Amino acid sequence: MTQQNNEQFRIFTEKLKTVEERSTALNDIKNLLAYKPASEAVPTIRNIGISKILHCLNETDKIEQLSLTCEVLKLCFEKFDTGDVIKTYTSHIMYLLRHEKDCVRRLAIDEVCKVVTTDPSLLPIPQYIDLYVAIGQMVADQDLGVANKAVLITSNLPAEAYPKVLEEMKIALEGNSSSRCNAFEVIVNISTKSYDILEMCVAHGYFDFMVTELQTDDILYQMNILELLSQLAIKPHGITFLVKQGALQKLSELIMDLQNNPFRGLLTPGYMKFFGCIAHCYPKEIFQKYPALLELLFNALESDDLTILPVALDTLGFIGTTWEGKLSLVALGSKYTQTIQNIGVIIKNSRVEIKVRALHCMSNLICTQKDPKAKTEEVDQRITLMTREWFRSLSKQPGPMEVLFDICKNPFLDIQLAGLTLLDAVCQHQWGQEMVAQVAGFVEYLLDRSVDNAKQSNEAKYDIVKRLTQSSAFDSNIITRLQTYVEQGPFYSETTLQVAMEEE
């Protein structure tokens, strides 16, 4: 800025002392800074300071003037490099973070968030620990935007900040359920990063408090806690801790008591998701040690309750995605066999949304390539034999592939895509490819580009055809047609070819 502009800035800030001139002066500062490059604006702001602008926050009850003051401060802050505002005006930022007005707190926390999400090392922990403590306490802020930013910031601090921050953040546990959930979210977010931080959170009593809070009558609160605990449980050090501390056993006991809970229908999906996440990673151990999960899951799969059945289908499919999950399920014997048969009935007879969930469940149970081991190991022969029998249970008469063919031709896109997803899973097996080859018209349907117009359907069919080009289930003529389809791409059409030729 020129010396003249420096003087203008000084004059405008002096006018802020006069109530009648305040709004005009704020607008003058705003206009003066708006188009000035940082190289000109920052020296003047540093020289004259922002104290007089800050005073305006407490000297007005007018929302318009308060908003305008925040706009001016934000404009000033934007001229500085990331972190420099906090370094230059640390005490001012601390003041703004504790201000009674939501918009003021949002202004300050945005500056801190900018630093933490860019480079936390810009604000070294020893020097700025009080700032991070203040942010940690703000996870209980009444303003949702401020609280969410506080959760984000506190979840991404250097590990050395947490001894102090965790101690001071306990204030959030004295607030309402929303405040406590925000604190729990931070605890889970940081505990998933390392065992050392997890132990620190345990020492501060957060996890004991979380499990105890599951006894509450607040259903939504319980479900939020379960969702958070499931995020921790899928980490090796997380599940080890939960088992060691007896948390899983306590949760298993709560599941057994669900039958007597009047809110059983609302709570069951949350408990299924929680144990489903763990069983996805450790199916054998969970099935052996926590049979209450299996009873909960299988009872839900036999239920007509539309708040429970979709989650049960998703959970079973998620558990059965891995090879170990499939082997653990089949080891359950007749109970699981009956469940597979029930899924076949659901696919054929249920309403659209349930049918789609059941198709995706069956897809995950039959699919072998979602397991990370599929990239380096051959599929266990037992899995090949099991999945064939599971697919056959879809229908005895007509055959399962005929039923799937009809589903793939369904005019409703969501059902059609779910059917194609199952077909792709089936075609990962030699037995599936042979079944496709035996159904009259199935290959022709896949190669017929006039059937589907939806982008997703074209892409799904293309992936299946590409897979079938490697199959030994078809004669050379069919393989040639499949390869031609793949070479032409998923969106080829005769119209496209004709236009291209005319342009030449």
Automatic annotation (TrEMBL):
UniProt keyword annotation of Amino-acid biosynthesis present: no
Acyltransferase is among the record's keywords: no
GO biological process entries: proteasome assembly
Entry keyword set: Proteasome
Family matches, as InterPro entries: ARM-like, ARM-type_fold, PSMD5
Gene3D superfamilies (alphabetical): Leucine-rich Repeat Variant (1.25.10.10)
Cellular component terms (Gene Ontology): cytosol; proteasome complex
Similarity comment text for this entry: Belongs to the proteasome subunit S5B/HSM3 family.
Protein name, entry field: 26S proteasome non-ATPase regulatory subunit 5
Organism: Bicyclus anynana (Squinting bush brown butterfly)
Upper lineage: Eukaryota, Metazoa, Ecdysozoa, Arthropoda, Hexapoda
The encoding gene: LOC112042871
